């Protein structure tokens, strides 16, 4: 801009000052509103479209309470028994993974941490394989239980190891203990799979991840776990923000870094373990969502958590809708669509802003 | 672990670096300021001077390298001995040195030795690649598999299986080609390494996820036999590998090693922020690009030959760092540790059970606890983590 030498006033003097960019608070709020609206839209859409011969318009009538549509047994089955559970599951999985990924990246100060880092995914896979091979488990509900138990047990071992001894629960200890034991469980899974062909075929489909064939009742037991995890997550937003200053800074503010890390990692376990149990090992979403959220919020921890959860839920539902309609009448595995939706998104985020690693909020 | 951010902040404003506990970078070894002129020799080095030239000879590093080299030789000997045919240890050695009867010599030198040598080379390539990427990003999770190398190799192998009429896995060089293609795609998408190479890593996660998803999709339409065969490959195995793949791998290693050592030397200076490094005369961007390219080529070659063997690229640099002191980037030591890990794991996999266990399974099942045991042992007062 040309400036008059004498007065420092802009030349011309009549043009209005350029509009100020919206402050971070307003930006976060509008992003949250937009994402919530998108979530509502996608939820409705998720109930309207899908397999089967029921046209979308009829499903809309059903939702609107049209009596003739309500009387249609087939339609009722499609909407209430098939699509509603899936929609609920997608939201649960998305919110859990989004929040868990955000927490874990903050706690380990590592932008490459994903929700599988604490061994949750590899432990769940090992649980499923053990259930399939040695206990003859076949029902989806029982597999869910095995996955949950495996994921929790694995994560507990990792946390115990990381929190013991000197330098307890330092970020590097968490990362290394998680990677190391994750590799161990993964190796065990491979070994069992290589020695039993019959398990491998079922496991192949479990590991790809899908929300098909879920019943609403399957996910009920997990809801309390997810709620507890979320409560801990939001409760620890402030201590986590303090941790971003480094351990000494956090101590100076009266926090206990080791304790924070163990508690938060426990919340991550609840959230990620539930998500894996519902939908199989979809690690990628928990990595993508925090990156996307940070692009909007910067280092604000509570806002980051909320947006991360919302973004992940949006992406998850969208991927699941695509999974139903991409190659009709077949189901596409949801993890594949997540990759197709999320991969480019992550690349775009990484390209569009300078990823700073300051304060571990990458 | 004392958090160094406070020190950082005093020394440098603002601090763009992740704290040291996010990776292998810590401040260079403290110099002991004695009488003037201050002695700035790192405590683990000898200064060799001839006239105007001087060289810091890494005493501890050299010792570690020699010890690791000997360990690898012992493991190779044990590996040739470890197998199901009842051959005595003395007999195995005579075969190794070519002094035994011709049949023994042939069995040892033509059948067992090549495979073990290939294993050592695969491990070395993985270790060096892991060291470069971890140092580059200052992040222990930044292993080469993050930049799509394994997914690329797997995709190429799957494509060869699907494309062939027999359902057999194609030529060995498909793996490295796929790996390099995937990594090239990552670099194209990233359009630059970004801060500490982080942009490449994050884009790499995105690209490798998509490539992996395509592979999954293709595999989910295959019959179970094909899927089982590919799965065996993705676990990582050395069975049936011989000099036909070993020779190219050796050439690749020998050609790239000097570059890797040079890059490691320069990466040390990248532990400072970019401006400082540039001020010290480091061509920052070029060194980053070189280190990444080397990591891709090395880990791609390794993945192509042995399959995506888990965990070695992550663990070897951590162990090497622990062995060799922290004042330098342990490129050579990482390679040697990687070689030793795979040689040991391969030998174990052949004796531990009646059927051979693929080396990838052994490295991941036992490598994890081994790493933790080394790292989390109660330390003797060094105060380092």
Radius of gyration of chain A: 23 Å
CATH class label of chain B: Mainly Alpha
Query: What's the assembly state of these chains?
Result: heterodimer
Can you tell me the CATH superfamily of chain A? ABC transporter involved in vitamin B12 uptake, BtuC
Count of runs of 4 or more consecutive helical residues of chain B: 14
Instruction: Provide the residue-averaged pLDDT of chain A.
Output: 80
- Radius of gyration of chain B (Å): 22 Å
Q: The CATH topology of chain A is what?
A: ABC transporter involved in vitamin B12 uptake, BtuC
- Helix tally of chain A equals 16
Percent of residues in helices of chain B comes to 55-70%
CATH top-level class of chain A: Mainly Alpha
* Percent helix range of chain A: over 70%
Protein name (chain B): Iron ABC transporter permease
Region (Disordered) (chain B): 1-43
Keywords (chain B): Cell membrane, Membrane, Transmembrane, Transmembrane helix, Transport
Subcellular location (chain B): Cell membrane
Describe the structure.
The complex is a heterodimer of chains A (362) and B (385). In chain A, 72% of the residues lie in helices and 0% in strands. Chain A contains 16 helices and no strands. In chain A, 54% of the residues are buried. The N terminus and C terminus of chain A are likely disordered. Chain B is mainly alpha-helical and 385 residues long. Chain B has one domain: ABC transporter involved in vitamin B12 uptake, BtuC (Orthogonal Bundle), CATH 1.10.3470.10. In chain B, a hairpin with a 2-residue loop joins β1 and β2. At the A-B interface, α7, α8, α12, α14 and α16 of A face α7, α8, α12 and α14 of B.
């Amino acid at each position: 801009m040309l400036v008059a030498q004498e007065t420092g006033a802009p030349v011309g003097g009549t043009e209005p000052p350029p509009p100020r960019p919206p402050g971070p608070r307003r930006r976060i709020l509008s992003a949250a509103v937009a994402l919530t609206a998108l979530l509502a839209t996608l939820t409705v859409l998720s109930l309207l479209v899908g397999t089967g011969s029921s046209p979308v318009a009829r499903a809309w009538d059903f939702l609107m309470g049209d009596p003739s549509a309500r009387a249609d047994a087939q339609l009722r089955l499609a909407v209430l028994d098939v699509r509603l559970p899936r929609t609920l599951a997608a939201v649960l999985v998305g919110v859990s993974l989004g929040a868990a990924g955000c927490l874990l990246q903050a706690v380990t100060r590592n932008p490459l941490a994903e929700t599988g880092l604490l061994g949750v995914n590899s432990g769940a896979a090992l649980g499923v394989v053990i259930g399939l091979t040695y206990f003859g488990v076949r029902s989806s509900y029982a597999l869910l239980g095995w996955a949950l138990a495996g994921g929790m047990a694995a994560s507990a071992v990792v946390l115990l190891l990381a929190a013991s001894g000197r330098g307890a629960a330092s970020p590097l200890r968490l990362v290394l203990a998680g990677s190391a034991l994750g590799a161990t469980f993964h190796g065990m899974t491979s070994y069992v799979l290589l020695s039993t062909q019959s398990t491998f075929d079922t496991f192949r489909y479990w590991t790809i991840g899908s929300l098909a064939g879920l019943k609403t009742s399957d996910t009920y037991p997990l809801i309390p776990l997810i709620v507890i995890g979320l409560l801990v997550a939001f409760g620890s937003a402030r201590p986590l923000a303090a941790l971003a200053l480094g351990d000494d800074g956090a101590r100076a503010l009266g926090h206990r870094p080791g304790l924070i890390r163990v508690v938060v990692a426990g919340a991550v376990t609840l959230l990620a373990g539930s998500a894996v149990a519902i939908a199989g090992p979809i690690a990628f979403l928990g990595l993508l969502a925090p990156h996307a959220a940070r692009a909007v919020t910067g280092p604000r921890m509570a806002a980051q958590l909320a947006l991360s959860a919302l973004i992940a839920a949006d992406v998850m539902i969208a991927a699941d809708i695509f999974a139903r309609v991409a190659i009709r009448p077949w189901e596409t595995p949801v993890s594949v669509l997540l990759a197709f939706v999320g991969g480019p998104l992550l690349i775009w985020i990484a390209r569009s802003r300078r990823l700073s690693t300051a304060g571990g909020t990458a | 672990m004392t958090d160094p951010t406070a020190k950082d902040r005093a020394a440098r404003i603002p601090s763009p670096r992740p704290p040291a506990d996010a990776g292998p970078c810590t401040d260079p070894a403290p110099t002991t300021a004695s009488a003037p002129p201050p002695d700035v020799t790192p405590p683990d080095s000898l200064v060799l001077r001839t006239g105007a030239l001087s060289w810091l000879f890494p005493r501890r590093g050299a010792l570690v390298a020699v010890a690791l080299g000997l360990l690898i030789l012992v493991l190779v000997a044990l590996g040739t001995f470890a197998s199901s045919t009842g051959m005595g240890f003395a007999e195995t050695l005579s075969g190794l040195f070519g002094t035994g009867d011709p049949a023994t010599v042939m069995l040892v030198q033509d059948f067992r030795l090549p495979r073990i040598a290939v294993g050592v080379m695969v491990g070395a390539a993985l270790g060096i690649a892991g060291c470069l990427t971890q140092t580059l990003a200052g992040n222990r999770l930044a292993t080469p598999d993050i930049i799509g190398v394994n997914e690329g190799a797997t995709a190429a192998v799957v494509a060869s299986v699907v494309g062939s009429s027999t359902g057999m896995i194609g030529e060995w060089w498909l793996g490295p080609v796929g790996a390099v293609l995937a990594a090239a795609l990552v670099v194209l998408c990233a359009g630059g390494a970004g801060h500490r190479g982080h942009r490449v890593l994050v884009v790499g996660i995105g690209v490798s996820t998509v490539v992996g998803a395509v592979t999954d999709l293709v595999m989910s339409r295959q019959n179970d036999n094909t899927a089982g065969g590919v799965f065996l490959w993705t676990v990582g195995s050395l069975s049936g590998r011989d000099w036909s793949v070993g020779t190219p791998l050796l050439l690749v290693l020998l050609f790239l090693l000097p570059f890797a050592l040079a890059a490691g030397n320069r990466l040390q200076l990248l532990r400072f922020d970019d401006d400082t490094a540039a001020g010290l005369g480091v061509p920052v961007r070029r060194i980053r690009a070189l280190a990444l390219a080397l990591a891709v080529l090395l880990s791609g070659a390794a993945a192509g030959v042995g399959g995506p063997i888990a965990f070695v690229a992550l663990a070897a640099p951590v162990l090497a760092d622990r062995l060799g002191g922290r004042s330098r980037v342990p490129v050579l030591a990482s390679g040697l540790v990687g070689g030793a890990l795979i040689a040991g794991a391969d030998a174990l996999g052949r004796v531990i059970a009646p059927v051979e266990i693929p080396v990838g399974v052994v490295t991941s099942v036992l490598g994890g606890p081994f790493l933790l045991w080394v790292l989390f042992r109660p330390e003797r007062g060094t105060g380092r983590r």
